[in-house]
Amino acid sequence: MFVDTHTHLDASKFEEDIDLVIHNALEKGVEIMMMPNVDPSTHQGMMSVHMKWPDNCLPMIGIHPCSVKKDFKSQIEWVKREVALGKYYAVGEIGIDLYWDTSLRKEQEECFRSQVELAANHQLPVNIHSRESIDLCIEHIEDLKKSNPELTGIFHCFTGTAEQAKRIVDIGGFLMGIGGVLTFKNSNLKEAIREISLDYIVLETDAPYLTPHPYRGKRNEPAYIPFIAQSLAELYELPLAVIEERTTENALRIYKLTH
Description:
The chain has a single domain (about 1-255), classed as Metal-dependent hydrolases (TIM Barrel). It has helices spanning about 20-25, 40-50, 70-85, 105-120, 135-145, 160-170, 190-195, 225-235, 240-255; strands at about 1-5, 30-35, 55-60, 90-95, 125-130, 155, 175-180, 200-205. The chain is built from 9 helices and 8 strands. The longest helix is centred in the middle third of the chain and has 17 residues, at about 105-120. It is of the alpha/beta class. α5 packs parallel to α6 and α8 packs across α9 (about 240-255). It has a 5-stranded parallel sheet. A 3-stranded parallel sheet has the order 1-2-3.
């Protein structure tokens, strides 16, 4: 069994064939698909998928950094109300994005910290978006971990350096989500994680984005997780079955799932 720890099944690119997409994933052994939330506008679509596939498609709740507004405190209140309902497996997708727009950097940082603390208070892991901000996100997590020692989570779509990977390992309780970028010929990711124990690795697609080779350029979907796993198997010089078992164990542990 595989786990896709980050897939946007509510995306518009899946509207016409979501049932087939999930069927294809199950056929490839991808039995659990974790769905990050972006903001209130994506919530209903995500929950609709979850309600139809309650054992396979599991929801998170949070405000994506690109959705953070000036009045982010009202957004936080919405997340708090949803978390209190107790039907989510993580707080995510949260973080800091300095690629698209830096004008709300301060608000992004404050919103990120508030959501991390909320997750810690509810014993939920966090799913972190850190585009062009990985050092900054690591710094915030290192700081928040001091007062929230039980805090855990995943640095989604990790594409950092070996040094950044080691810092994440040293935090304790945090993993790196490895996706399609690992399969790209020009990727430096292999060198970054080569010395990192599999204990700190989980698989993800970020579907419909970041499609792995050999389907790069087309729509991504959870059924492509085995291509990422195969690339990891070649990197670690281990059988595919070992990658499948170890990354699945990591995902089940971080999301507190039994299967």
